[in-house]
C-alpha cells in the first residue's frame, strides 16, 4: 500500500532572504515545522541545498515528513523528533539588549541583507543583533517584535524559525566570519505577540571540523521559554 502525497506550492518572497539570492534558512525551517505539525512538538529540518527566492517550489507531505523540492532536486526535508528542546538559559531583556553593543556583525557582516540578523531598515528586517553576555558563554539580543511580521494569527512559525536560526551562528562567529545553516530543529512552546519584548539567547554547544553546533531560545520577560532551536552550521572549506 502506498501513501498518497499531498502537494502544495511554496514561493519564498524576496524579503525573507538570508545570504544573497537565497532564502533565510530559519524562515524555511519554521515554515516546514508549521507544515509538519504546527511546530508545537520538535521538528528537525535539514537543508540539503539553498532555497531560491521568488520561485515556485513543491511542498510535499508524505507519511510523517515534509519535503521541499525544485523539480527533481530535493532542497529541504523535515521530520519530527521525539524530544523537547530546552533552550540555552534565560537572560533578562535589559541584559540581552545591552549585549547587542558587542554584536560582531556591526564591525563586519557577511550577510548584511539577511532578514533575521542583517542591517536592514527596522520593520523590514528583524535586526536580531546578538552580542556576548558577560561572565557566560551566551550571546543574546533584545527582540522588540515589529507588527510588520505578524499575520492574522499572530507571529508565524516562519518568523520564529528565523529568529532561532542566525543567533546560533553568531554564538560562534567573529566579525566577518560566516557559515551556512545545515540543520535546524525547532519547537514552539507558546505564542509570540507583535509589539512584545523578548530575549533571544544562544550558546555554542560544540564543534567538529567544519561543523558548528548551537542552541537557542526565545524568552518572555519573566523567563518563560516561548520557542527553542538546535542548529548545525557548516563552515566554508
Automatic annotation (TrEMBL):
Domain of life: Bacteria
InterPro entries, per the entry: HotDog_dom_sf (IPR029069)
Protein's recorded name: Hotdog fold domain-containing protein
Amino acid at each position: 500500500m502506498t501513501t498518497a502525497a499531498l502537494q502544495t506550492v511554496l514561493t519564498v518572497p524576496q524579503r525573507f532572504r538570508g545570504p544573497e539570492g537565497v532564502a533565510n534558512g530559519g524562515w524555511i525551517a519554521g515554515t516546514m515545522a508549521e507544515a509538519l505539525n504546527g511546530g508545537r512538538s520538535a521538528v528537525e529540518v535539514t537543508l540539503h541545498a539553498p532555497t531560491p527566492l521568488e520561485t515556485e517550489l513543491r511542498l510535499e507531505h508524505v507519511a510523517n515528513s515534509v519535503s521541499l523540492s525544485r523539480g527533481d532536486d530535493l532542497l529541504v526535508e523535515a521530520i519530527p523528533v521525539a524530544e523537547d528542546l530546552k533552550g540555552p538559559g534565560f537572560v533578562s531583556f535589559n541584559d540581552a539588549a545591552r549585549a547587542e553593543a558587542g554584536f560582531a556583525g556591526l564591525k563586519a557582516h557577511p550577510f548584511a541583507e539577511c532578514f533575521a540578523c542583517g542591517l536592514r531598515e527596522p520593520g523590514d528586517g528583524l535586526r536580531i543583533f546578538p552580542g556576548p553576555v558577560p561572565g557566560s558563554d551566551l550571546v543574546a539580543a533584545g527582540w522588540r517584535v515589529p507588527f510588520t511580521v505578524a499575520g492574522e494569527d499572530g507571529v508565524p512559525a516562519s518568523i520564529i524559525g528565523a529568529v532561532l536560526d542566525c543567533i546560533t551562528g553568531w554564538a560562534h562567529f567573529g566579525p566577518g566570519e560566516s557559515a551556512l545553516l545545515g540543520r535546524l530543529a525547532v519547537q514552539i512552546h507558546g505564542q509570540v505577540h507583535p509589539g512584545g519584548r523578548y530575549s533571544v539567547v544562544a550558546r555554542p554547544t560544540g564543534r567538529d571540523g567544519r561543523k558548528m553546533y548551537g542552541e537557542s531560545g526565545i524568552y518572555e520577560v519573566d523567563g518563560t521559554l516561548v520557542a527553542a532551536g538546535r542548529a548545525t552550521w557548516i563552515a566554508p572549506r
